[in-house]
Every structure is written in structure tokens, then in C-alpha cells.
Amino acid sequence: MFPRVIKKRIFTILFIAIVALLFWYSATLHNTLIDAASALKGYSENNPAAAIIIFIILAISSAMFSLFSSVPLIPIAVTIWGNTATFIILFWGWLIGGIAAYAIGRYAGYPLVKKILPEDKISYYRNRISPQSELAIIFLFRFVTPAEITGYLLGLMRYNLGKYALITFFSELPVAALATYLGEAFLLGRAVIFWGLGVFIIILLFFLSYLFHKKKIDDR
């Protein structure tokens, strides 16, 4: 189910893998990363509050707009704040962004959402679920589709806010943890952990997509 989404996710993972190889085995690129991390760490030490706010804004933006992504900055964030703090900042940024996308969809409505998302995407995903879908289906849908699409779409459908917040909380939790550990593995050159997590994520995406498809069929 959702072949376009799965292909896009796999392409993204492969792209990250290629970038990782380039940084690991290119002294120039590796030194560039270290220099960038050092510069941003110096800025963070002089402006701790501003650095955290900037990273939170990027995390919020990445949960609302596909154009933005906070993922490339995760390895640098790990060098500045460590695993735990990076995870917390990333998780709450994504959670706030998801709630904001839902609010825009629910209260601003279709005229504004169609300026953010292509109309064909809105109609494509809108045909896959309904506000009456059971919680498990919506939860799986949230996992197998991009975060911003789920937020705007369920907001447009006026899906129950409490359920949406619960789904978003428990879906972003493991994703933020995996992203943080991937960032650390990338930074430290831990190939086994990095590739192991990458393969695990691909398998998990296919499995969740299969569960969503099966659940939809069983409910008909």
C-alpha cells in the first residue's frame, strides 16, 4: 500500500546512506562536517537559548512542510547537546509541528491547505481513510505517510483532536529516537549500527504498510 510513499522513503534512506559513505570516506567532507559542528557548537555556547529555539523551529517546520527537514542537523545537534537533549528537542518540535498542521487544516480549511499540499495528494490520501476509521487504522496511516500530510488531512476531516494528539505523540516518539541514534551513529562512523537501523527502518515501513492494507481489507 502507498507504493509512492514507500519508494520515496526508501529513496531518502538510500540517499542518506550514500551521503554517509561520502562523509566517512572523504577526508574533505568529514573535516567540513567537523568544522561546521565546531562552529555551531561555539554559537550554541555563546547563545544557548537562541540555538535551541532555532533547532525547535526547524523541527516544527519539518513536521509542517516537506521542503524543510531537521534530520541533516541531528548529528550536529548530538555533538552540541548529546543524545537525550537532542531527542527531547526533536520530539517536541515534531509534536508541536504536527499539532500546528492539524490546527491549520481544521481551522483554516481547504483554501489554505491546498496552497501547502498539492491537490492531487490531498484527494489521493483522503480516499484512503475517513474520520470514522478506527484508531488502529489512523495510527498505521500516520506511520506510513509523511507527517505533514497526516496533520493537514486529519485537520481537514475534523478528526478528534485528542485522538490525533495521542497518535502523533506515540508515532513521533520512536521516530525521534531512531533519528537521534542514526545521527549519532553517522557522526561516530558506527557502520554496523547505522546500516542495521537503516535496514530495520525499511523492513518496518513495509511491515506497517502491509498491516495498514490488511486492516483496511478486513474492515470492509
UniProtKB/TrEMBL annotation:
Topology in the lipid bilayer is annotated as: Multi-pass membrane protein
Protein's UniProt keywords contain Transmembrane helix: yes
The UniProt record lists the VTT domain at 72-184
List where the protein spans the membrane.
49-68, 80-104, 135-157, 164-182, 188-212
Q: What are the subcellular locations of this protein? A: Cell membrane
State the organism of origin. Answer: Candidatus Harrisonbacteria bacterium RIFCSPLOWO2_02_FULL_45_10c
* Record keywords, A-Z: Cell membrane, Membrane, Transmembrane, Transmembrane helix
Which coarse location class applies to the principal site listed for this UniProt protein?
membrane
Output the superkingdom of the source species.
Bacteria
Q: Which GO terms describe its cellular component?
A: plasma membrane
From the Swiss-Prot or TrEMBL record, give the protein name.
Answer: TVP38/TMEM64 family membrane protein
Q: Which family does it belong to?
A: Belongs to the TVP38/TMEM64 family.
